[in-house]
Amino acid sequence: MNLTELKRRRPGELLTYAEEIGIPEASTLKKSDLVFAVLKQLAQTGVPITGEGVLEILQDGFGFLRSPDVNYVAGPDDIYVSPSQIRRFALRTGDIVEGMVRAPKEGERYFALLRANTINYDVPEVARHRVHFENLTPYFPTEKLTLEVEGKKDTSTRVIDIVCPLGKGQRGLIVAPPRTGKTVLMQNVAHAIMANHPEVNLIVLLIDERPEEVTDMQRSVRGEVVSSTFDEPASRHVQVAEMVIEKAKRLVEHGKDVVILLDSITRLARAYNTVVPSSGKVLTGGVDANALQRPKRFFGAA
Questions:
Q1: 18-30: pLDDT as tens digits
Q2: N or C, fewer C-beta in 10 Å, the chain?
Q3: Rounded to two decimals, what is the model's pTM?
Q4: CA-to-CA distance for 55 and 78, rounded, in angstroms?
Q5: With helix as H, strand as E and coil as C, how does 55-90 read?
Q6: How many CB atoms sit inside 10 A of residue 163's CB?
Q7: Positive or negative CA dihedral for 243, 70, 21, 30?
């Protein structure tokens, strides 16, 4: 049984399956608790369980595999990764780990990783000899991202190709007044990248957006869509953004191409302004002097 496939089932399908295998009071459980109960029941019957997630290492030295399907929110169905395994494979926050998991023993609350089968879609030995992202050499783009899609009526991506062509390793900003179609333009860029460059790992990061806009983006874009909506605290916006950029860095360390479409960096900067401790130096508009450092680091990671 694959944990990721189980999480992607609809609540109705999951409830039916839980009742079939004999989980008591399944209809009263939340989805994350229901997934945990199903996995525990399967583990007791001897069914092998595999799991996958993005590693988040906590200050105490251990970590958890978070699921991108729930925007890296901590839950009871997360997979515990011990400090010894983190040291053994030189794991860091953002690594995509897939492997065998075991059921929690008495007194434990989480499933635990038994062994890692792949790390960032490569064999585990590769992760131990990779070059850190900070030690890689930055240089100007040498390979173009073609955004024009043959036979498509929309010409916005064709205009981008002509006026401001984009390359792999480039950063760019869309600066425009409200209600002028920035989000639609980003959707068109995402469609073009997935159509013309299937080798690229596309991540669309939506910060402080409305839930219905997130749903619309998830239904229209084939890449990974990660979000933190406007009803969530600023600390959550920051955590999601940090997880996404760390995941992108780990993939780049393994020689893969990653494109992040962020909407919007202004709201991310506001979230950092709320979270960072006050330095006593306030810039124009009430922004703390230290608040812009981390959004600039995010933007400069390209």
A1: 888 888 888 888 8
A2: N
A3: 0.86
A4: 10
A5: EEECCCCCEEEECHHHCCCCCCCCEEECHHHHHHCC
A6: 7
A7: positive
Contact between 65 and 78 under an 8 Å Cβ cutoff? The reply is yes
- Residue from 33, 37, 39, 55 nearest 3 by CA: 39
**Angle at CA of residue 71, ends 204 and 232, nearest 5°:** 100
Token pair 């043959």 in the structure block, residue: 150
How far apart CA 173 and CA 273 sit, in angstroms, is 20
Output the six-digit token pair for 49. 């369980």
Q: Is the previous residue joined to 82 through a cis bond, with omega within 30 degrees of 0?
A: no
Q: pLDDT by residue (tens digit) across 26-71?
A: 888 888 788 888 888 887 787 888 889 999 999 888 999 998 888 8
The DSSP letter of residue 2 is B
DSSP H helices, 98-165, are 124-127, 156-163
**CA separation (Å) from 141 to 138, 168, 169, 171, 295?**
9, 6, 5, 10, 22
| Domains within the chain, CATH numbers bracketed | 3-127 (2.40.50.140), 172-300 (3.40.50.300)
Phi first, then psi: give them for residue 277, nearest 5 degrees.
-65, 145
Structural tokens at position 236: 């959550």
Rounded distance between C-alpha atoms, residue 86 and residue 243, angstroms: 17
112 phi-psi bin (left φ>0, alpha ψ -120 to 50, beta other) = beta
Instruction: Write out the E strands in the chain.
Output: 49-57, 63-66, 79-81, 96-102, 111-119, 144-145, 166-167, 201-209, 224-229, 258-263
